[in-house]
Design brief:
- By secondary structure, the chain is α/β, with parallel strands linked by helices.
- It has a single domain, classed as 4-Layer Sandwich (Metallo-beta-lactamase, Chain A).
- The protein contains nine helices and twelve strands.
- The strands form two sheets. Strands 6-5-4-3-2-1-12 form a seven-stranded mixed beta sheet. It has a five-stranded mixed beta sheet with strand order 7-8-9-10-11, with helices on one face.
- Strand 8 and strand 9 form a beta hairpin.
């Protein structure tokens, strides 16, 4: 009888260990083309030196044990199809100078990785600006994770953001999609591997994502709550819903970095993208 109980206990222990891996499988860092070159002071008005920069439009594909996840969908496919001037507001194309070949659109990137858009279970949206939610309509069957405030702002942007960074043609056919509306932080899968971090400021409902990988460990994908390292040097982004909230969110991410030892992977850093982009992180 004791032998039977011991064997049963061993089985329970093995089952527990096998069902609690606690790590995502792998994360692919990619980009929906680039913006630029343009003067950094256009994006960061307080930056003291005028110099031209290029910025990637970062996106992420997470192959997780509980489903395939995409974090942001980049610029709308119309930009790659030569329709920038008709899809975006007048002046935006010339200001951002997008370079986006067709194979840099999220559907083609997924194909290159061996998936299709129909394989995607969850799309996490950092926010509703044109270079982050542009291809939401490619994912009608996915669950869309977004802050409730951000979804409201997408449909009713403030006057200073209309006819520019919000392009309602990107999501006018997505009104009846399945939305998992967040209200602050959230542990997406309940195992600590994908944490939604509420980082308002750039927009009303901006959200970053902290990912735990088996080999790399935890990383924090900031997206537009931190564009690049210059924002950490006392030069905030120039387009913000609330500068106060922006700085509070930036300080919070710095604390996560310093207290937990989590590296910050910025939303538009060409240096980071060239060093770590277009490959899997495990």
């Amino acid at each position: 009888m004791k032998a039977i109980k011991f064997f049963a206990a061993m089985l329970v222990g093995v089952a527990f260990l096998g069902g609690n891996t606690g790590s995502a499988q792998q994360l692919y860092w990619t980009s929906s083309g680039t913006f630029g070159p343009f003067n950094i002071q256009i994006l960061v008005p307080t930056y003291p030196e005028a110099r031209d920069i290029m910025v990637p439009v970062n996106m992420w594909v997470l192959d997780h044990p509980k489903g395939l996840v995409v974090y942001d969908t980049g610029n709308n496919v119309a930009i790659a199809d030569g329709q920038c001037a008709s899809h975006w507001a007048e002046g935006i194309c010339g200001l951002l100078n997008p370079s986006q070949p067709r194979d840099a659109i999220i559907d083609k990137i997924l194909e290159r990785l061996g998936y299709s858009v129909s394989d995607v279970d969850i799309v996490i949206h950092s926010h509703s600006h044109l270079d982050h939610i542009g291809n939401i309509e490619m994912f009608p069957d996915a669950i869309h994770v977004i802050q409730d405030k951000e979804l409201y702002q997408a449909w009713w942007p403030e006057s200073f953001q209309r006819n520019g960074v919000h392009v309602q043609a990107d999501y006018d056919d997505a009104r009846d999609f399945r939305y998992f509306k967040m209200d602050g932080d959230y542990d997406l899968f309940g195992d600590g591997t994908v944490k939604i971090i509420f980082t308002p400021g750039h927009t009303m409902g901006h959200q970053s994502v902290q990912i735990k990988l088996p080999e790399t460990g935890s990383v924090l994908l900031t997206q537009d709550s931190i564009w690049f390292k210059e924002n950490l040097e006392g030069h905030p982004a120039g387009l913000n819903y609330s500068v106060l909230d922006y700085n509070d969110s930036l300080e919070r991410m710095k604390m996560i970095r310093d207290v937990e030892g989590v590296p910050l992977w910025y939303g538009h850093s060409i240096q980071q993208y060239e060093a770590m982009g277009e490959r899997w992180h495990k």
